[in-house]
Recover the amino acids of this structure.
């Protein structure tokens, strides 16, 4: 089997996003792809640490390295194709309000037709309850309370994201959704809980990384619910000749993936 690692650095939403693409090719020609792209500020490991982990160790220990290798191996062992997937769109399905005051959050949500809000663990109980009472028909409130607040006193449907990657208790009485980010959580994923939606979400991966998440949703036989994968448009230039297209709340994937070699740097190419 041949193993190749490609480094990329690309303009992203006003900044720079870096990562590595892992390509495995078996002697029979079957190809597996994975992406290793720790997210600064959210991942505990750096890209250098994750890449070194993949190159030097038999078993990856960092979440991004675990997910990158698992993605490539699943392509080799359980190849699937996905033509399209339904996505959630920020400012439409979900609005981020964690950084806003109560008054500004109310004003912002009143102007939308969103089905949920992301509060990013930044609200105290009193303010969160006051906001929720204004919008009791929202499908979910994502991470509504700061750590240390009385979560048992928040009676509205909750989505968990950041707190799934900590040892803090999840004491909300109505947990409706788990937002799973394999790049940050690693692989295998936590077990699904009966009655709790399991939604995959990106960590600002490349277009290939988005496709791997879509394939994971198919492998896990997840329900046809919008996933948090609509982030490709934040990158200025594509890494591949083929592009993902977005229309009518869906991503449409190409049938082939041809890497633009002028956009990447080969950092490893070896036979195993």
């Amino acid at each position: 089997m041949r193993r190749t690692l490609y480094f990329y650095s690309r303009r992203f939403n006003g900044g720079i996003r870096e990562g590595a693409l892992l390509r495995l090719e078996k002697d029979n020609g079957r190809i597996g792809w994975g992406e290793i792209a720790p997210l600064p500020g959210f991942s505990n490991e750096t890209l250098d640490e994750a890449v070194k982990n993949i190159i030097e160790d038999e078993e990856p220990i960092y979440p991004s390295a675990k997910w990158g290798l698992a993605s490539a191996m699943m392509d080799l062992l359980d190849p699937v194709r996905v033509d399209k997937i339904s996505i959630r769109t920020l400012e439409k399905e979900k609005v981020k309000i964690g950084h806003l005051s109560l008054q500004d959050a109310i004003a912002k949500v009143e102007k939308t037709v969103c089905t949920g809000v992301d509060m990013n663990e930044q609200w105290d109980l009193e303010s969160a309850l006051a906001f929720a009472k204004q919008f009791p028909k929202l499908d979910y409130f994502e991470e509504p309370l700061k750590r240390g607040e009385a979560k048992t006193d928040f009676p509205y449907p909750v989505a968990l994201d950041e707190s799934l990657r900590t040892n803090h208790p999840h004491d909300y009485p109505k947990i409706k959704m788990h937002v799973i980010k394999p790049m940050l959580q690693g692989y295998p994923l936590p077990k699904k809980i009966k009655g709790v939606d399991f939604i995959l979400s990106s960590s600002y991966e490349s277009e290939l990384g988005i496709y791997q998440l879509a394939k994971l949703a198919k492998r896990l036989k997840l329900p046809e619910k919008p996933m948090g994968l609509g982030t490709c448009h934040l990158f200025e230039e594509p890494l591949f000749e083929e592009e993902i297209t977005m229309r009518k709340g869906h991503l449409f994937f190409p049938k082939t993936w041809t890497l633009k070699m002028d956009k990447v740097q080969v950092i490893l190419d070896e036979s195993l």
The first strand starts at residue 2 and ends at 12. The mean pLDDT is 94. The chain is about 20% helix and 25% strand.
